[in-house]
Amino acid sequence: MFLFGFAKAAIMPFHAWLPAAMVAPTPVSALLHAVAVVKVGVFSIVRVLTGVFGIDLLSTLHLDTLICIIASFTIIVGSLIALTQDNLKRLLAFSTIAQLSYIVLGVGLLSPKGMTGGMLHIAMHAFGKITLFFCAGAIFVATGKRNISEMKGLGRRMPITMTAFFIASLSIIGLPPTGGFLSKWYLVLGSLQAGQTAVLVVLLTSSLLNAAYFMPIVYRAFFSPPDTDGVKTRIQEAPLFCIAPLTVTALISIILFFYPQPFFRLAQMAVKAVAGG
Fold first, then answer.
1. Could you tell me which residues come within 8 angstroms of residue 261 by beta carbon, excluding any fewer than 6 positions away?
2. Is residue 259 exposed (0-12), middle (13-18) or buried (19+ Cβ within 10 Å)?
3. Each residue of 193-240: pLDDT tens digit?
4. How far, in Å, CA of 77 to CA of 84, rounded?
5. How many CB atoms lie within 10 A of CB 185?
6. How many degrees, rounded to 5, is the angle at CA 34 between CA 149 and CA 68?
7. How far is CA 230 from its chain centroid?
């Protein structure tokens, strides 16, 4: 019940509030979906699982299996629903639902590497997803477009924004050179360490699904001819106050691949404290 009680973690079927919240302005959506609110939910779940129950009791009662099943279901279904979305912010919302359960899944593995990967994903996902929401906001400010189907050729007109979008997409998918690769790599190692082959399949499948809904957006933006619709107006980049934040967060996603130590040390300290307790 704790898994569902912290509803801000958006574990299915208690997830409907999160896509509905996408109507908020982009800075609010970015804070909501990437940093503050949803991460409080998963952090609270982590604290309850490791502090109130403890890994020994979870293992004895076989609750780790139940946690992994619930988190895996949310990851796969959330990713499949994201595949069907045309509204960019709604797609990002369902992506967030799936990504949050990576953190719960990492703790559910009860292996040191799995828990490290789950806790590390709190930070890595934050920088990737906040960049994606900033990009969605910049696109809307510059063009008024919300739907993916309307973004053909947009990368030629907004190269900075769409390059940042590409970098952040790599982080969410879990590919180098972005920080998201490290957290997902530790989740994969954690599933092997725990002997959970099914979880490994879920992780690999979900990463393929992540690529399936992000890469077509990038392809459409950079390689598809733009829809002119008879309009001669040239679309420019969004104003500097829109471009600067997404550029910074995209660069941080890359920096974290080469220098993850601050967040990595925190994750390792947390795992040691849990194991020691």
1. none
2. exposed
3. 888 899 999 999 999 999 999 999 999 888 888 766 544 446 688 888
4. 11
5. 16
6. 95
7. 37
Query: How far, CA to CA in Å, does 35 sit from each of 32, 52, 136, 147, 209?
Result: 6, 24, 16, 24, 23
Place of tokens 């691949």: 257
Q: Is the dihedral of CA 130, 16, 107, 54 positive or negative?
A: positive
| pLDDT attached to residue 72 | 92
pLDDT of res. 232:
47
Whether this model's pTM surpasses 0.85: yes
Sign for the CA dihedral angle at 18, 22, 25, 26 comes to positive
